[in-house]
Every structure is written in structure tokens, then in C-alpha cells.
Design a protein that fits this description.
mainly alpha, 2 domains, 13 helices, cell membrane, XK-rel, transmembrane, XK-related protein
């Protein structure tokens, strides 16, 4: 019954993920069409189009790589999966439908779930977070009284979809972290998942707002700051990798991609880039170092924006300052509550243990693994 309930729950969650992704993409496309119909919104149209197409190409490229990892046998299903991924750019949806089919057929979908979670992570930050910053930036900097109500409504609908997509990316990665632990005693409660989600959301939300505000006054330097942070985090991920294939071009490229989400919040990616989950630096130490730099950047961006903004006499300025301070305190509060009360091991902060886990970036294809198992059984 326990396995059945988990399977039903996973099917429901997968259906929700499909609906959420569809809404996010459709709302962005409708907003882009609305921009295209207004001559005064040529810049908005170009930027929104770029923020839809470029993340889609990146995510679907990763999907093709995962398809190659999962099977080497050429069959009609693999061909359909590849065609839907390129050129139709439906890879993230194909990932979710594949989980759904495997679960309905009562087959193991753990590895596909891991791949889908990584695609969701990349899609959530490359598309949703970037789109959210862009639309918030346009809301701040553009004051077009003649803008159609439909365009304004679609912008808010797009921002809502991007927020939901980003939130789901956070939940998806957390679920996958737990998926790689076979110990049933470490199952996380619903309350723990909610508290962890709130802790991450109170970090990501202010970060996106402050980046948009900073970009409204220092557009060039916003890209410079984001680029430096991206480069440092990608290097961090690369240094933590101890696998023999870490210097392969495809793996270096994937690590560079995984560095981008770390611009917005701390994401524990140990299960991604290790052949075995060895004992590394405890997560709490890595998180402490990361958020020290993170909040120095946040308050620096806020201070520089305050220095140049024209909103010094309006209600907007004290609201931003109070909101940034309050959400930072809430972030620390939720993190403390999670690790002290809601974590599966409560006060004991988790350290990666000696778990034999295949890396989702380096493992052999599923059909090759099956052949290896069969040959070892025969011998």
C-alpha cells in the first residue's frame, strides 16, 4: 500500500508539473505576441523572445544528452523522443510524460526523475527566473500609459507563471535529493518540505527583485555582477567533481550550465556530479559561505540602487528596504527551523554518507546496465 500511495502521488505530481510547465510557456508566448502587436514594444518583444528561445534550446540540448544516457538502442520510442526534443523543443514535457508512462506501467523511474529534475532546475532558472527579472525590470522602467490592458494583464500572468515555475524548480530538486537516499528513515515530512520551500523562496524572491532594481539603474554592471557570480559558482561545482570524466567537454559544459541557478540561491548538487556520494564538506558550511557572499551582494546592490534612484521621496523606497531586511530575517528563521525541527534527522545536520549512487551525468545507459547485470548473473 505504501508503494502504491507513493506511485499515485508521483503520478499526480507529474501531471501537475506538466500543467505548470504548459501554463508558464504559453503565458510567455501570449505575452510575446502581445508585444509584437504594439509598435512601441519592439524592445520588449525582442528580449522576451530571446528569453523564451535561448533557455528552450539549452534545456532541450540537455534532454538529448539524457536520452543518450538512458538508452543506446535505436527504436521507434527513442526516435520519437528525439524528434519531439529537437526540432520541436518539447524535451521538458517529454521527460515528464516518460515518468508518467513508466509509473503507469509500474516500472522504476528514479533515473528519469533525476534527469527531469535537473531539466526542471535549468528551465526554472534559465527561463522562469530570467523572464521574471526581465518583466519586473520592464514594469519598473517602462511607463507607457497607452499600453493596452491585455498586454498589461498578460505581463502579470507571465510573471505569475514564471514565479510558479521557479518555485517548482526548487521543490523538484529537493525531492530528487531525497530520491537518492534509500533509507526510509530519512523521508521528509510535508511540513519539512513546506518549511524548506519557504526558506528558499525568501532567499530567491528578494534576490530577483533587487537584481531587477539594480539593473534599472546599472544595466551593464548587473550583467557583470551576474557573470562573475556565475563563473565563480561554475568553478566551485567543477572543483567539487572528482570523477575521471570531469574534463570531457560535455561535462565541463554541463557544469557551466549548473552554475547559473547558483546566482539566485544555494542549490545542493552533490548527487549530480559525484560518481559516489562521498563525504564532502558538510552542506551547512557550504551554505554559510554561500549566503555570506549572497547577502553582501544583495545589500551592495540595494545601496547602489538607493544612491541613484529617483524614488527617494516615495513609499516605494522604505518598502524595499524593510522588505529586504524582513525577508532576510525570515530566510534565516526558516533555515533554522528546518534544520532544528523539520529535517529527517532533526538536530543532526546531514553530511553525505558512503552511498553507492550512480551520477546522473556519468552513469552507463540503462540498457547497458541491464546487460551488465544479466552477464554477472549468468557468470
Amino acid at each position: 500500500m505504501k508503494c502504491l500511495s507513493r506511485r499515485v502521488r508521483l503520478i499526480v505530481i507529474t501531471c501537475f508539473a506538466i500543467a505548470l510547465y504548459t501554463y508558464d510557456i504559453v503565458s510567455d508566448i501570449l505575452l510575446d505576441i502581445a508585444y509584437a502587436r504594439e509598435e512601441s514594444h519592439a524592445l520588449e518583444f525582442g528580449l522576451t523572445t530571446a528569453y523564451i528561445i535561448v533557455p528552450a534550446i539549452i534545456c532541450n540540448f540537455v534532454c538529448v544528452y539524457f536520452i543518450r544516457l538512458e538508452t543506446t538502442h535505436h527504436n521507434v520510442y527513442r526516435t520519437i523522443e528525439l524528434v519531439l526534443t529537437f526540432p520541436f523543443l518539447l524535451g521538458p514535457l517529454v521527460r515528464q510524460f516518460k515518468i508518467l508512462i513508466l509509473e503507469l506501467r509500474k516500472k522504476d523511474s528514479k533515473r528519469v526523475q533525476t534527469h527531469a529534475a535537473l531539466v526542471t532546475l535549468l528551465e526554472g532558472y534559465y527561463e522562469s527566473a530570467s523572464q521574471l527579472i526581465l518583466q519586473f525590470y520592464l514594469t519598473i522602467t517602462r511607463h507607457d500609459d497607452d499600453e493596452e490592458f491585455t498586454t498589461r494583464f498578460l505581463r502579470y500572468a507571465s510573471m505569475l507563471g514564471s514565479s510558479a515555475g521557479l518555485a517548482w524548480a526548487l521543490v523538484s530538486v529537493r525531492r530528487t535529493n531525497r530520491l537518492h537516499d534509500d533509507d526510509d528513515t530519512t523521508d521528509e515530512s510535508t511540513c519539512g518540505s513546506v518549511v524548506f520551500f519557504l526558506a528558499t523562496l525568501t532567499a530567491v524572491g528578494p534576490r530577483i527583485v533587487l537584481m531587477a532594481l539594480f539593473a534599472s539603474q546599472y544595466t551593464f554592471y548587473a550583467f557583470v555582477l551576474g557573470g562573475i557570480h556565475w563563473f565563480v559558482c561554475s568553478g566551485w561545482i567543477f572543483l567539487m567533481d572528482r570523477t575521471k570524466d570531469r574534463f570531457k567537454p560535455i561535462n565541463v559544459f554541463l557544469k557551466c550550465l549548473l552554475g547559473y541557478p547558483l546566482i539566485f540561491c544555494f542549490v545542493d548538487l552533490d548527487y549530480v556530479y559525484t560518481e559516489k556520494a562521498r563525504e564532502h564538506v558538510p552542506t551547512r558550511y557550504k551554505m554559510a559561505i554561500y549566503y555570506l557572499i549572497f547577502y553582501i551582494e544583495n545589500w551592495t546592490m540595494l545601496g547602489l540602487w538607493l544612491r541613484k534612484t529617483e524614488h527617494k521621496s516615495s513609499w516605494f523606497l522604505p518598502t524595499v528596504i524593510a522588505g529586504a531586511a524582513m525577508l532576510m530575517i525570515l530566510h534565516f528563521f526558516f533555515q533554522a527551523i528546518y534544520y532544528k525541527c523539520c529535517h529527517p534527522k532533526s538536530v543532526e545536520i546531514p553530511v553525505l554518507r558512503q552511498i553507492e549512487v550512480n551520477s546522473c551525468l556519468y552513469a552507463e545507459p540503462d540498457d547497458v546496465q541491464d546487460e551488465m547485470i544479466e552477464s554477472s548473473t549468468e557468470s
